[in-house]
Model the fold of this input.
Amino acid sequence: MKIAILTCGILPIPAVQGGAVENMIDFYLEYNNRKKIHNITVYSPWDPKVTKHPALSSDVNNYIFIDVTSVKARLKRRMHKFFNSNEYYNYFIEYYFEQIYKDLKKRDYDILVLENSPGHAYKLSQRGHKNVILHLNNDLLNANSRFHDAIFNGLTKILTCSNYIKERVETISSSDKIQTLYNAIDVKSFAPKEHSIVSRKNIGLSDDDFVIVYSGRVNKDKGVSELIDAMLQLKDKSIIKLMIIGGTFFGNTSDEDDFVHTLKDKAKHLENRIVFTGFVPYKKMPDYLHLADIAVLPSMWDEPFGLTIAEALAAGKPLITTRSGGIPEICEGVATIVERNDIVNNLTSAILDLYGNPEKRKQMSIASLERAKLFDKENYSKKFFAALESL
Done:
């Protein structure tokens, strides 16, 4: 089949700037390049880092880049905003889509895949396009969404990253066109290994410490503040330490907002028992996760999926998390899942339980590694193309 992939227009493909959705796209493109199943054209924002990327040498995956950053492009974007008001997205995204469409209408594709951009499904249906697939990684299409009926009816299939997101779409209508396709990680890269590029000593921890790891963005929605509050309740357990991995947003940034400053002020009450690593490059994440005895990821919002949950499982970590959005689907039966009400006390009790039960931790670690196999990128890619081929 000839397939067009329309990215949402924020980050480039190949995923040289990271991004959860962008990594998912890279996974199935890598698979297609190896298996040579379909002829795929990817529309992506231009980024100079992609110039020499090996993915561009593929003979089955083709990349068409849209200039959105040059002076000329910025002027055109402003003009688009002036002449086109009240569009679904902001003028930056809408300009990007229209540049794609100039090329798209000249070609003949069997399937159009929209990555996380339901608003563009509306435009495509209005312009008569069929066989449009929406691959949804966030809660962006539900009964409260703008033009939700027209968008839903104009789509041939909707792939959702979890049953939680599937249920949100079903607030519009229940239909067999909606299918859950769980997100994925490179499971092998997170697997435990004998040698690591970083040691506990490197970051101020000792081999005798009982180390908790939090990984992910450091913001109010992720429950980091509540986790530190739980640590304050464990202040008499000096052997228990917390390693917080991540920055305030995606990418390598040293900026710290008021929230991070608040967290560090709290942490001062525990002296050297909380380590903030700041941003860690994704390739190094497994090495940092392997320093910990357990992972605690207490999300306080309804996560669509929770990639950090899958990463902790793949690293073989006994896991404590919250009943939030799609998280239970990933780790039900292998993790300790606590309720968000009375979260600090719930986290404190769960941490103490694992701290005092090494045999339970061992069994949870084995279960984590087994569960993680469900979210491997190879399995994900197979199911992605099977879903397209079923049309």
